[in-house]
UniProtKB/TrEMBL annotation, chain A:
Entry GO MF terms: guanyl-nucleotide exchange factor activity; translation initiation factor activity
Protein source organism: Gambusia affinis
Keywords carried by this UniProt record: Cytoplasm, Initiation factor, Protein biosynthesis
BP terms from Gene Ontology: cytoplasmic translational initiation
Subunit organization: Component of the translation initiation factor 2B (eIF2B) complex which is a heterodecamer of two sets of five different subunits: alpha, beta, gamma, delta and epsilon. Subunits alpha, beta and delta comprise a regulatory subcomplex and subunits epsilon and gamma comprise a catalytic subcomplex. Within the complex, the hexameric regulatory complex resides at the center, with the two heterodimeric catalytic subcomplexes bound on opposite sides.
Stated name of the protein: Translation initiation factor eIF2B subunit gamma
Domain called EIF2B subunit epsilon/gamma LbH: residue spans: 369-460
Transmembrane residue ranges: none
Location of the protein in the cell: Cytoplasm, Cytosol
Superkingdom of source: Eukaryota
Ranges for domain Nucleotidyl transferase: 28-161
Keyword Acetylation in annotation: no
Purpose of the protein: Acts as a component of the translation initiation factor 2B (eIF2B) complex, which catalyzes the exchange of GDP for GTP on the eukaryotic initiation factor 2 (eIF2) complex gamma subunit. Its guanine nucleotide exchange factor activity is repressed when bound to eIF2 complex phosphorylated on the alpha subunit, thereby limiting the amount of methionyl-initiator methionine tRNA available to the ribosome and consequently global translation is repressed.
InterPro entries cross-referenced by the UniProt entry: eIF2B_gamma, LbH_EIF2B3/5, NTP_transferase_dom, Nucleotide-diphossugar_trans
């Protein structure tokens, strides 16, 4: 998109076609079988590749990236479910003109990315470019590929400066997100050669760098705060290596660190020495080295000759030849600016939705959307196909999905509304994510909430009139399978009453309406609440939905009721909830909780 | 091939520049030439004056020579063998309109001689035939749309040879650029944009930025261009493959891959189709970095071998043949040549010598390593210059072998020269007039060495000999990325925003030419020859092929 448009890109007279050979320079592989384990709330009903970002399925972005730079074919590794959805999705059909070869992998099987590559090994004829389905970027892809080409590298990958997500994330209270474990990435002086890679999690005490690296590259820059974009150029030999070596199951977790490490190992560098060894030892080594030898790109003698004659060297300061005679080389391109998101957390998903309009030049409002004249739609909002937006509505910095219906006097700011959502009159939605097919009842006021797929938020009126004078249904979140709803209803000034209603799987069968009715009916009982709260918190297997934003008094009540147990109780829970409850439990001791909640409410 | 032709044409232009008045038609040419080639150097002007004098003398002779014009030129070459000292130029050759082989501007004229001997006549006849063949071949050389154009304009072409300057030295001419863009579009190769402000004298040359490689405009699984060529182009433009030997080997290697992956489409002939296939590749490489003379020769050879393949030859057979030819070329012209040169130059290295080398020539390094193996006791002084500091690499290679070395920068060359006993230089190309084209700075070293009376030996394989004629470094040269001149020292980067200073221009010149006066000897695989014998070698080579 930011590349100059060129007629050469879609030229038909390619050398491959003329010659009729199968030799291609690169094959693209899209990994779209991931479950989205870090954003289970969103991916419960919609598989991650099909999550709408800017009203396009998430996997459209990497596909578009590939198509834009000139790929004509792509192998998509995905699940049956996604394949079915892909075949029905109009956007995918219309926008992607590439030939897509879809390969399904078993859904529940514990298949890593490297396993998936092994799975399609038959289809791989040449070097590959592996892209993850959750990458949204405007990188000039040639930068990565050029490193791969020019240095005849075994691996070239893309990294980017980590983005700070400033937006408040529904479901994640508190400003600090659960700190991810940092990656340490060592590069040489040019900043291109990847020398070292370690994750904080793997370090026991301190960072140790092997002598063989330091000897060859005495000046190494170790960088942190980088995000791996999960875009890799790999030599065909690596795929062959994977088929030989079955123990590796993930590209990022095992293969890449292995390749980076192997750059400096002796087996790949001093093959000559090996050859001179006695037969017996060689036989022993054969089994072990064969796997490794396969990986090092075989330089032809002529190329080597050219290298010898060339007066270029990649380093200075010691007596060895270019690349230190190593044949396995890993390179990394680090994006200093530009967009690069991996949509694997809720925060990234929200951020990506904000940035998505910048990535494609389409009118933000789809022509088939029906928008009444007397409503405000900000230029930074996207309105999908067949949407209906009624009068006196204001939509700012938001995405409204396909076939959604927004009724009168609704205010939507900073929110993501997915497909076929109905928002009734007078709602106020702020900073929230509303999943597909949800129905938001009249006059609901949602702030920083996550509303699950097909959920129905009851109109505010009955609850409010029955119980409270000032009530906020602050958030309802979701998992239908273990359908637990927690409602906090607060009576101001009245004796505190916290109702936590717990509905088990059986209740779900009674249908949506019944469920909500039940909950409403049951919510008044104080004792009831108490027991259920306890079950709620001790259930280890539960992926509980949670209520996140609530009135100050609620916090007080929670604390006074002391239904928080030990930390161990919480460990089986959704991380976000864990974090949230943990935060309260720690705050309890310092009595800062009220201040904290107040602040949060203001955000 | 095409390139070569263009070069030839440029030569003709130069000849036209030298101001011959040989009929109305040619007068027109010269006028045009004067207008177009504004930058006449001093030398050229001097030559011009001399030739005018000459012309008066040879006026009577002109009539019977008019027929044999084209023949004379090669004849001039042959006389260059016997009399290598440059002298005045033949009147006859200057007016040649057709692109013919080697011109020898310095060749002595036979104008004053009495009627020709039998042998001379014979030589003339042969030369004429050769010229005819050459012109035929040149027509054959550019088939396709270009050929058609040239045929249709055949009549006008003769009137305007001036327009046929090679496009890579006419970057300041918008018409030529437009033509180039058109040609590239036809070949589906993107046009690489010039970068930054150019120093005024060099505005006619391309100047590219390393940061804007051609690949950013190509599709990523490259479809138009063979991946091996794309890789090579990148390696050229980033300087990973540098030095004319390395570049030629890498080029031939890439060609081998192209040939291996090639299958003739139905209804096509291999010899024609493959040559056409290579053309866009070559223009792609030329944009990544202007081709070196050695690469030009290698391309010429490959093309000739391809066109020599008989049409009834089976594809597999033909491909095998071509691969073998390429292998042979590398082995014979580069590897064995280097060996032969090393052998003969070791004779020139005696114990106790102090040898000065400049930059990083793979051939000179090879010679020194061989000499060490022959147990010669010598010391090496490596002279280096910015911005590439290739000397460091040479230093590394020599020290690794155990040769004792001294490293100085070119600014200290006059200080170091008194202790030097011989200067060994590599070459990018040897031009037909005996000038040595080499890394910028070579000429300066040769000059200083001459002043100190130190013998200067140039080592060069014959495949780097080039039919081009050049007397200065301005007309045809290469501009490297000016950003290379920027240095960061102690965290400070001066010149970082040089583009924002309008009066400031950075010049990163790649080559210079050394006049033959400063070169004592050229060591080739054919033996040791004086610079001025280049035309002989070229002619012998032409006959061989």
């Amino acid at each position: 998109m930011r590349l100059p448009p060129l007629s050469y890109r879609d030229s038909r007279s390619s050398w491959t076609k003329n010659t009729g050979t199968d030799t291609m320079e690169l094959q693209a592989v899209l990994m779209a079988a991931g479950g989205g384990s870090r954003m289970t709330d969103l991916t419960y009903n919609t598989p991650k590749p099909m999550l709408p970002v800017g009203n396009k399925p998430l996997m459209w972005y990497p596909l578009n990236l590939l198509e834009r730079v000139g790929f004509e074919e792509v192998i998509v590794i995905t699940t049956k479910e996604v394949q079915k959805m892909m075949s029905t999705d109009s956007k995918m059909k219309r926008d992607i003109k590439m030939k897509m070869e879809v390969v399904c992998v078993p859904e529940d099987g514990d298949m890593g990315t490297a396993d998936a590559l092994r799975h399609i090994q038959q289809k791989i004829k040449t070097d590959i470019l592996v892209v993850s389905c959750d990458l949204i970027t405007d990188v000039a892809l040639h930068e990565v590929v050029d490193l791969f080409r020019a240095h005849n590298a075994t691996l070239a990958m893309l990294m980017s400066k980590a983005h700070e997500f400033t937006e408040t994330v529904p479901g994640q209270k508190g400003k600090k997100r659960t700190a991810e474990q940092r990656d340490f990435v060592g590069v040489d002086e040019s900043g291109k050669r990847l020398l070292f890679m370690a994750n904080e999690a793997d370090l026991e005490d301190g960072l140790s760098v092997r002598k063989s690296i330091i000897r060859k590259h005495p000046r190494m820059h170790i960088k942190t705060g980088l995000v791996d974009a999960h875009l890799y150029c790999l030599k065909k030999a690596v795929v062959d290596f994977l088929t030989e070596n079955k123990s590796i199951s993930s590209i990022r977790g095992e293969l890449v660190p292995y390749l980076v490490r192997k750059q400096f190992s002796k087996t790949t560098n001093s093959q000559k020495v090996k050859e001179d060894l006695e037969d017996q030892t060689q036989k022993k080594n054969d089994c072990s080295t064969n796997h490794e030898l396969l990986i090092s790109s075989r330089d032809e003698p002529l190329l080597q000759l050219a290298q010898e004659r060339s007066c270029w060297n990649d380093h200075r300061g010691d007596m060895s030849e270019a690349y230190h005679g190593g044949k396995l080389r890993c390179y990394v391109h680090i994006m200093e600016q530009g967009l690069c998101y991996r949509v694997n957390t809720l925060a990234a998903y929200i951020e990506a939705n904000r940035q998505a309009p910048k990535l494609f030049e389409e009118p933000p409002v789809h022509p088939s959307a029906i928008i009444s004249e007397r409503c405000q739609v900000g230029s930074d909002s996207i309105i999908g196909e067949r949407c209906q937006i009624a009068e006196k509505t204001s939509i700012k910095r938001s995405t409204i999905g396909i076939s959604s219906n927004v009724k009168e006097k609704v205010k939507v700011t900073n929110s993501i509304v997915m497909h076929s959502v109905t928002i009734e009159e007078g709602c106020n939605i702020q900073g929230s994510v509303i999943c597909s097919n949800a129905i938001i009842g009249r006059g609901a006021d949602l702030k920083y909430c996550l509303v699950g797929n097909g959920q129905r938020i009851e109109p505010e009126a009955p609850c409010a009139s029955l119980w409270l004078t000032q009530i906020r249904v602050s958030a309802v979140c979701v998992r239908v399978c273990v359908c637990v709803f927690v409602f906090f209803y607060v009576c101001v000034r009245a004796c505190a009453c916290v109702c936590v209603h717990y509905i088990d799987g059986e209740v779900r069968e009674h249908g949506q309406n019944r469920t909500t009715r039940n909950s409403t009916a049951a919510a008044c009982s104080h004792t009831h609440t108490h027991t259920h709260t306890r079950t709620l918190l001790t259930r280890e297997h539960s992926h509980a939905p949670f209520v996140l934003s609530f009135h100050t008094t609620v916090a007080k009540l929670i604390l006074s009721n002391r239904f928080l147990h030990t930390k161990t109780c919480l460990c089986g829970w959704n991380t976000a909830l864990c974090h949230h409850l943990f935060w309260i439990s720690t705050a309890e001791r310092t009595n800062e909780v009220i201040v904290g909640t107040d602040q949060l409410m203001e955000i | 091939m095409l390139l070569q032709q263009q070069r030839k044409r440029s030569r003709i232009v130069k000849m036209a520049d030298s101001g011959v008045t040989d009929g109305n038609e040619k007068k027109g040419d010269i006028e045009r030439a004067k207008n177009e080639g504004k930058e006449l150097t001093k030398e050229e002007k001097q030559r011009l004056r001399k030739e005018k004098k000459q012309q008066k003398k040879s006026k009577e002779k002109k009539d019977d020579k008019a027929i044999q014009e084209s023949g004379k030129e090669t004849k001039g070459d042959s006389s260059a063998v016997s009399a290598p000292q440059p002298s005045t130029q033949s009147t006859a050759q200057k007016a040649v309109p057709a692109p013919v082989s080697v011109p020898a501007p310095e060749a002595p004229t036979p104008a004053e001689k009495p009627p020709k001997s039998k042998a001379e006549l014979k030589a003339e006849r042969r030369a004429r035939q050769e010229a005819e063949r050459a012109s035929k071949q040149s027509k054959k050389g550019d088939p396709g749309p270009q050929g058609a154009v040239s045929k249709s304009k055949a009549a006008t072409n003769e009137l305007q040879p001036v327009k046929r300057l090679p496009e890579h030295i006419q970057v300041d001419n918008p018409d030529v650029l437009k033509k180039l863009a058109k040609k590239l579009e036809r070949q589906q190769i993107p046009l690489r944009l010039d970068y930054g402000y150019k120093v005024s004298l060099f505005s006619h040359l391309h100047q590219y930025s390393r940061k804007a490689p051609l690949t950013q405009q190509l599709s990523i699984p490259s479809t138009v261009i063979h991946p091996a060529i794309v890789r090579l182009g990148l390696q050229y433009s980033q300087g990973i493959v540098a030095g004319s030997n390395a570049r030629s080997i890498a080029l031939l290697h890439a060609f081998k891959q192209v040939i291996r992956d090639y299958t003739t489409p139905p209804n096509e002939e291999l010899s024609r189709d493959l040559v056409n296939r290579l053309k866009p590749y070559i223009s792609f490489l030329n944009q990544c970095r202007p081709l070196s003379a050695s690469m030009g020769n290698a391309i010429k050879y490959v093309k000739k071998e391809i066109s020599n393949i008989p049409s009834q030859c089976k594809e597999e057979e033909a491909k095998r043949k071509l691969l073998f030819c390429i292998e042979w070329y590398i082995k014979e012209k580069i590897i064995l040549a280097a060996k032969a040169i090393a052998e003969s130059s070791i004779e020139k290295i005696s114990d106790g010598d102090v040898i000065l080398i400049y930059g990083c020539s793979s051939l000179v390094n090879h010679i020194l390593c061989e000499a060490l193996e022959k147990n010669r006791k010598f010391r090496v002084i490596v002279v280096d210059s910015r911005p590439r500091l290739e000397g460091r690499e040479a230093l590394r290679r020599l020290v690794q072998r155990g040769i004792s070395c001294t490293y100085v920068l070119i600014s200290a060359v006059s200080y170091i020269l008194p202790e030097v006993s011989k200067v060994f230089l590599g070459a990018h190309a040897l031009l037909a007039n005996g000038y040595v084209m080499s890394r910028v700075g070579t000429s300066q070293i040769a000059l200083v060495a001459k002043a100190f009376n130190v013998p200067v030996l140039v080592c060069c394989e014959t495949y780097k000999f080039c039919e081009r004629v050049q007397t200065d470094s301005f007309v045809s040269n290469e501009l490297d990325d000016p950003d290379d001149l920027i240095v960061t020292r102690n965290g400070q980067t001066h010149l970082e925003h040089w583009q924002q200073e309008p009066p400031l221009g950075l010049l990163n010149l790649v080559y210079d030419v050394t006049p033959p006066d400063f070169v004592d000897l050229v060591i080739t695989e054919l033996g040791m020859i004086p610079c001025t014998s280049v035309p002989v070698v070229l002619r012998v080579k032409n006959v061989d092929q």
